[in-house]
Amino acid sequence: MDYISTRGKVGAIGFIDAVMMGLADDGGLLVPKHIPQVSADTLKQWQQLSYQELALEVFSLYIDGEIPREDLKQLVDDSYGTFRDAEVTPVRSINNHLHILELFHGPTFAFKDVALQFLGNLYSYISRKNNSIIHILGATSGDTGASAIEGVRGKEGIRICILHPHQKVSKVQELQMTTVDDANVLNLSVEGNFDDCQRIIKELFADVEFKHRYHLRAINSINIARILAQTVYYFYAYFQLANQGQAGKVNFSVPTGNFGDIFAGYLAKRMGLPIHKLILATNENNILERFVREGVYQPGEFHSTYSPSMDIQVASNFERYLYYLHGEDAQAISAIMDQYKVDGNIVIPADKLATVQADFVAYGVQGEECLRTISKYYDSNAYLLDPHTACGVAAAEQFTSEDEVTVALSTAHPAKFDEAIRLVNIEQTPPPQIEALFDKPQFQTLVGGSNSEIVEQLVKFY
Ligand SMILES: Cc1ncc(COP(=O)(O)O)c(C=O)c1O
Ligand SMILES: N[C@@H](CCOP(=O)(O)O)C(=O)O
């Protein structure tokens, strides 16, 4: 399988090179040259597979023999052996129309573990096999950082530096990252918001000489491996419903920030999974909702919300979608992204907007509605939603017709966001792993938001 850049200036490279490159060297994002197609017969065969078996099949399509199957199987088994639920990503039925896909049974209680347990092990594998130096640089609004650190802490040959926005992540998220005392981990708490952190790391990755000199590798969803791993649970959830006799139209509702998780759903659909609607849910940071409704992509004012991990204006994976929206025309994307730097917005014509609106429906959830949704499902079903999941569930309510069911992706455990849960007067007992964090010392360095300050820290660390 070959990978190419959305901007057309990185030629066909293999899977491992794509993982190691992270952000494409021309500033674009890597995508598979051809999206593998899964036939109806294959879907039928896959329906009975365990999560691990299914992941092995999906990864094999994209890795295409570059990693021997036995090794890949071991990577998959190691990655999902750390999950607390035997099904890895189980589906819970709430009512006849709503099912919750629980993606938070990994070590850090967020959906990021599904991809980052795998990517951590993959980096370790590549480092051992190819003697490669792995210096991970990532930005987080709270969950990716904790999960990536957990995936590689203490691993030989790997160092990881994570930038998080100072005091803009939940207490549990902060503790999960900063109580790790392994010498290969550096946490930088940056004055600014997540978009600032993400902009800094992208600028450093775009400086190809710097990136190569310091062997910088990505763990954010700019890395194509993240997206591929996240497609697996769309298939798995669909099969779980099919196995329960659920025929008919199946939607997925996805709380969205960086457009990574919902892009994985889009990819699964393009591979042949018969997803009906892809419902895009945002919080007040609703750039993507506005794009789907109006065809204008324009960062707006930053809001701190009850769902802080989705407090994102500049959505990394949007460029991957634009690439498919423009018929895989890398020249067009290169021109659009150059013009975006000048204009600060992207406006698509009416025919393309019609395609967008066929691909997605979107709903922006305000804070009060998010909290109301948490209370509602707690009272009616004794089910506690985290605030990100609540956005997805509120959006599912808007778009699920009588003849449809919606799978709402539950992207985090509510114990990670107790600040919001307390506002609706719900007392939760945190899992012991989370409770234990409060007794541990923290390790982090507070830095200003300038690139030079970050570079100074990185050069010392790597
Ligand atoms: C808990 C949670 N939900 C939803 C999202 C949104 O996912 P994505 O950025 O892939 O759109 C994130 C992170 O971005 C998250 O941490
Ligand atoms: N919500 C994310 C933001 C980074 O997104 P990613 O999917 O590109 O890693 C987080 O929790 O850090």
Automatic annotation (TrEMBL):
State the pathway, as annotated in the record.
Amino-acid biosynthesis; L-threonine biosynthesis; L-threonine from L-aspartate: step 5/5
Q: The Tryptophan synthase beta chain-like PALP domain covers which part of the protein?
A: 101-404
Keyword Repeat annotated: no
A Pfam family it matches = Thr_synth_N
Entry keyword set: Amino-acid biosynthesis, Lyase, Pyridoxal phosphate, Threonine biosynthesis
Q: Which residues does this entry mark as bearing N6-(pyridoxal phosphate)lysine? A: K112
Q: Which GO terms describe its biological process?
A: threonine biosynthetic process
Its Enzyme Commission number(s) read: 4.2.3.1
Task: Name the domain of life this protein comes from.
Answer: Bacteria
What PROSITE patterns does the database record attribute to this sequence? DEHYDRATASE_SER_THR
Task: Give the enzyme's main class according to its UniProt record, as a single word.
Answer: lyase
Annotated catalysed reactions: O-phospho-L-homoserine + H2O = L-threonine + phosphate
Q: Which cofactor does it need?
A: pyridoxal 5'-phosphate
Q: Which CDD domains match?
A: Thr-synth_2
Name all Threonine synthase N-terminal domain ranges.
3-80
Please name the GO terms that the record assigns under molecular function.
Answer: pyridoxal phosphate binding; threonine synthase activity
Q: Which family does it belong to?
A: Belongs to the threonine synthase family.
Question: What exactly does this protein do?
Answer: Catalyzes the gamma-elimination of phosphate from L-phosphohomoserine and the beta-addition of water to produce L-threonine.
Q: What is this protein called?
A: Threonine synthase
| Lineage of the species this protein comes from | Bacteria, Bacillati, Bacillota, Bacilli, Bacillales
